[in-house]
Amino acid sequence: MPKLEVLRLFLRKFGFLFFLIILMYVLLQLSSVKAGGMMSFAIDSLGALWMWGNCPQQTGAGEFCIANSSVPLPVWDFHGHTVVKVACGNEHVVAAVSAGETYTEGDLVCYAWGNNNHGQLGLGDKESRSRPVLISAFSEESSWEVYEIACGASHTAVLTNRKSFDQIESRCWTFGLGDKGQLGHGTTATICSPQPVDGLPTGSFLISLDCGLFHTTVVSSDGEVWCWGMERGLGLCPDASFSGVDAGDALYPIRVQSPETNGFKFLGPVQIACGAAHTVLVAGDGYRMWAWGRGRSGVLGRGKTTDSYIPCVVMWPPLGENFQEIHEDQAVASTSRVNDHTSTELEQKLSAASDELQFLRSKLTLMERYANILHISIFRKPLDEQTLPRSLQESPIFDIRKEFENILDAADTDELNRLEIFYRSMLSGVKDKLLKRRVQEMVQQCIISLSAGRQTPRDQ
């Protein structure tokens, strides 16, 4: 049979199939991507999972191996299901997949495969898997519903919600390598099956989770952030010069203190994310960012490369229209740079303006932090436009004496007792005798003035 006829028969038989395949590739979009170790993953718009790089695969003899693939390969094991989320460590993968063909809320189950030398697959053993295996603790029959997954170098963390209409209860589960306390169970032991982290509050709903190489972090809906693992949950490497009281690893979750509220709650939390040895929190309903941990290469975004053991504000205020115009002018100038002295001069001005803006940002951050601390020290609540002192609302000058009189005037007996305790505690911390005497005189004058003001109506 001539070659042309063979080709015609082939196209007649399989042409429509090829057309569908080509159409699928043309219309197919990516919905999310994930990378970790030396491998990458993507989920397409149809809910299929693709992987490439040094991925877990199976040899011709059916044995586990890590093989290289320079092009994306589909994970056929999830055919007929929808992959919603994927996470990967150095050599292991965890995926949240719909129990049915399409994803509906509350029907996610969890699969894991790859290197399992530390039990990071959560399958109860240390046998590596070349293909996805269902984690029984998060199967369809489980009483817990999976909604967030994350992987460290050799450990895994999962957020679940109880399948109950009566109560909302979220739990964090960890398993795998625990030598740096990254599992949060109070030991450095390796755990091969999912175990809940008991040090977290049961009354809060955990909204975000992520893992660094050797640390784990979660954030709750009410703004509490919890970290555990290497270097008190900061994820810093052992060569970091930790300046805190305890430089050891955190075997239990530790609450991260918020400089913004002088407490343990960040306002308007949104999402947490971990790098190898640092953590970033998006808060303020998406308008604020905080970062802490190792600061090399400027990953903390605060204009420095030093480590930070407490959350610091990332210098990224929203760009105003004027600043946006400057960037647009900069882009136009860069395209006409050849033999154009005007563009060179503009670039120099833009560079100077950018340096000045960065300097002002750092100063603003410092002033904001100082003002917040000072306001909390005086009024015992965070600085907020809605709770500004009356003396500041009525005048551009802050009268501390008048404001103190207002506080005393509006205070009930319990509040006065608390103020007295605060005042005595403050005085005990003043070492300079002259300064202590002046503070006492000022408070005494305020009390006398206030007493006279209260007695005036009675006398009349």
From TrEMBL:
Pfam families documented for this protein: RCC1
Keyword hit for Repeat: yes
UniProt keyword Membrane present: yes
Annotated transmembrane regions: 6-28
Keywords, ordered alphabetically: Membrane, Repeat, Transmembrane, Transmembrane helix
Ranges of the RCC repeats in the UniProt entry: 47-99, 108-162, 170-222, 223-285
Protein name, per record: Ultraviolet-B receptor UVR8
Originating organism: Panicum virgatum
